[in-house]
Amino acid sequence: MKLNYLISATITGMLAIVLFTTSTEAQSIFFGIDDYGRRTNPIGLKLLTMLIPICLGFCIGWFFSPGASRVRGATLIFSAVSIILVAIANDGVLGGSSALLVAVVGFFGALGFWLKRGISALGEAPRTFGSSRWATQEDLEIHNIIGDDGIRIGQAYHQAPTDVISYKGDRHLLTVAPTRSGKGTTQIIPNLLSYTGSTLVIDPKGENAMITTGHRKAMGQDVYIVDPWGIANIEGIETAHFNPLDWLDITDVDITENAMLLADALVVGENHADSFWIEEAKALLQGLILYVATDENEADQRHLGRVRDLLLLDGEDMPKQFKRMTQSPHHIVASTGARCLQKEPKLIANVLAAAQAQTHFLDSARIRESLSMSDFKFEDLKTKPMSIYLVLPADRLNAFGRWLRLLVQQAITVNARNIAKKPEKPILFILDEFAALGRLSMVEQAYGLMAGFGLQIWGIVQDFNQLERIYGGGWQSFVSNSGMINYFGSSDKMTAEYFSSMCGETTVWNFSSAVANAFSPSSGDKSTTETDNRSAAQRKLAYPDELMRINTTKQIVFIENMYPLQAFKTPWFKDEALKSKGVNLHDQ
């Protein structure tokens, strides 16, 4: 209403100015024009020269604004009717010109009407057989993907080179990237240089630690590098240690369950035919772990190296150990000792052999040293900014993967239980070489149930065959429970076909032309008929072979409730906002 009043006042003012200036008396007073036509008051003329364009511009702008659509429509109709009436009623030049104008405008208007319909029909995307498409700039804005205040993904096609896209949800993440595809330089390191929350990262080469540790310390984070082989040699930072048995408190009502989780992390079993021996090995390890953690005679050697030593006792000392365990006040320790004494010698020998096979990695002096004491607690990841790097050389992943399993399972467990405390930003678990961990029940549960518990898990695998081999038919739950999945390409056919199906199907126009010739023998006449047809056809948005040949600078990103997105992978050392924060190892 105020705008209407302003417009009315402006128009009234303009009319008043026109009427005022056409009056001789007004000219004499306002402009100072005397009886001889001389101007004696130039200020009035200047003022009027300024006011008229301002008012005129305001009115013209309002006329073409959305608020004046009705006035504009009425004016156009009135003008058209007036021109037509003039063309009909006037027999002179004015009438002829008006008629010609009406004819030309009418011709092009009618032609444009059908052209517009035809062009719209051609340009309109058919949806008969599917409506999938690539995400647009508008989709990015609607889903709040633009910006670097989340987990950085890369850069979208539609954006300027300096803009980034990021995932800001609280669900877990999954990356499918083969070796040498740039997952470290374009995903892991950019987030370690920008993410302000606590992190735990598996770092097979130690490069993540060497590049980002300095900046994360500068961010005010406590940094711990657990590196048994010392491959991430960083000046000023000593190698950290962590003893999983420090978690076991005799006064904790959950000590039995916690010991069971440690035993579960130690034992890797993928063959269902060996399930009996696997479960028996877990039970034995649980009892021995509880014994070492609670017996007063073991106070100076409460670590997994001691558990390994007990497993390797000879035939005479092992029964004595089981008998000592039966005297324990802890019922699980006592029952484990009693069960082992009751078993036939051959059966207990097989159980011991199974447990020994699962703990070979504890013979490594480097691993035993790393597990001998604790320099930090995983519980602190939620209460203060911390960065933990678990460094294990790639060539030792298979032999010592259980060490990673132990630490990752415990870190997730203790923080998933503490749901009362929620950090400002979730703890980010970056699990590179995710498949090397084997089947971890806690990670599987976390993907399905623990989104929003103050932690986010980011699994990185080379292809989906790895997940299927480890988790069987349940591997797809990692896909369905991820809020963001990005694909860097794969030579694995199953993986490419799966992502092709995730991209969906779309409908496209199929144009065809047909020419028919006819000849009449009786009359000798010939005729030719040409027919143009247009039909809707189905095609995949991206075929598997196209996804297997994806450009090395690009990725396909799937974000919950959004169309698939084509994005660029940007190495951290080419990002203006990040390259000064990390240590470029190639410049040293």
From TrEMBL:
Pfam families: T4SS-DNA_transf. One of its GO terms (cellular component) is plasma membrane. It comes from Cohaesibacter gelatinilyticus. This is Type IV secretion system protein VirD4. Gene3D superfamilies: P-loop containing nucleotide triphosphate hydrolases (3.40.50.300). Keywords: Cell membrane, Membrane, Transmembrane, Transmembrane helix. InterPro entries: P-loop_NTPase, T4SS-coupling_protein, TraG/VirD4. Belongs to the VirD4/TraG family. It is found in: Cell membrane.
